[in-house]
Amino acid sequence: MEGDIEKIKVKNPVVELDGDEMARVIWTWIKETLILPYLDIDLVYFDYHILNRDATENRILFEAAEAIKKYHVGAKCAAINPDQARVEEFGLKKAWKSPNSGTRNQIGGTLFRQPIIFKNVPRILPGWIKPIVVARHGFGDLYGGTDFTLPRGGKIYLKYVPHDGMESKEIQVCDIEGAGAALGIFNTEESVRGFALSCMNFGLERGYPVYLGTKNTELEHYDGLFKNIFQEVYDTQFRERFEERGIRYEHRLVDELAAFAIKSSGGFVWACKNYDGDILSDMVAAGFGSLGLMTSMLLTPDGKTVLTEAAHGTITRHFRDHQAGRETSTNPVASLFAWTRAIYYRGLFDNTPAVQEFATTLEQACFDTVEAGFMTKDLAVLAGSGPWLTTRQFLAKIKESLDRTLSSRD
Ligand code: NAP
Ligand code: MG
Fold this sequence. Notes:
Layout: E1 8-9, E2 14-18, H1 21-35, E3 39-40, E4 43-47, H2 50-55, H3 59-71, E5 73-76, H4 84-90, H5 99-107, E6 110-115, E7 132-136, E8 146-150, E9 154-160, E10 169-176, E11 180-184, H6 189-206, E12 210-214, H7 222-245, E13 249-253, H8 254-263, E14 268-272, H9 274-288, E15 294-299, E16 306-310, H10 316-323, H11 333-350, H12 353-371, H13 377-383, H14 391-409
Parallel strand pairs: 1-3, 2-4, 2-5, 5-16, 7-14, 12-13, 12-14
Antiparallel strand pairs: 6-7, 6-15, 8-11, 9-10, 15-16
Helix pairs in contact: 1-10, 1-14, 3-5, 6-7, 11-12, 12-14
Bound molecules: NADP nicotinamide-adenine-dinucleotide phosphate and magnesium ion.
Magnesium ion binds near residues 278 and 282.
């Protein structure tokens, strides 16, 4: 089959970040069976294998992030985030910092977590028939906060001292009788504006409405900053294009939005403040079922740089089986979508519709395969269906379906 298909030329490179363990094994299988035979593509390769990160003392992360900033599209395989046990397992020089947050922080932008939904794989919440995309603001809030213990009664003040020497301002937070604790958090206009831009750009590309949830009734100024900036960004830069696509942006109270989300059929972007997003992204992921179906994507505020990945880890337990020579039934769907979404955006940025179309055709082949009843074990268990396929058998089914579609178009 491959021999008689003419490869589609991809204009600009995609940065590939290879990873560890079982995720690395399926990453390569996908690349070799479903990507390289069909695309004439230049992959700028960085190896995040734990031993290579150790050998380069994590410089590889920096170099890869620079390459993503240069070429604007990256696809990342899951990689080990080393702890002390991994230091011993691999004889590492030290527990190097996370390959995930390291690369993300250098690129900037917002992380969007998005499930892949198959009609015949039930969700915990069956009403969720379309994805709920959780966009988590990755800056400030509790994660940039300062907290301390109050050993006895006293007063707490917030004091603001402007850099330009303008008059400082002090307000009393409380005056308490007994012991307690206090917390100070902050955010910046710049970061919230970037977050708003990322969310609107994502919604526009995906054709999903965007909802921001805050508690501005309680936090008039802090949550008000989010509410006001989102509204301003929408009104000045996105309203017209949203209306053309038949979607909209709305601010809602976060508790009302949470209740709405549970009852909804999905199909929207949920913009969350940092702490809300930490909780809600895990809640939404659990509601959709399998880790093997959750993808994530980093998108910069200007909408011009993306890094795609699967939300799961390196699937160590399956890798032990693989090392012992046993075939595993590891779900490759989220990793496959990391590849296809990167290729889709590559086509979008290069203005090469044939490349975008290949990405969506491959995704459709994956839908057709699963919806025809061919699945890995995790999905078969959820669907309560019969025998499952090994990862390689499953990928072969997807390839059959892809080849059928492509040859029917000739
Ligand atoms: P994990 O790799 O996500 O796997 C946990 C369990 O979830 C697996 O044992 C498996 O359950 C199930 N699972 C996850 N993905 C699956 C898939 N595609 N198909 C089928 N089952 C799947 O989490 P972990 O074992 O806690 O972490 C392993 C390593 O990954 C750690 O070193 C961690 O640092 C790293 N990690 C990396 C990333 C990243 O690169 N973004 C994210 C998270 C974790 P069963 O065993 O029941 O089949
Ligand atoms: Mg969390």
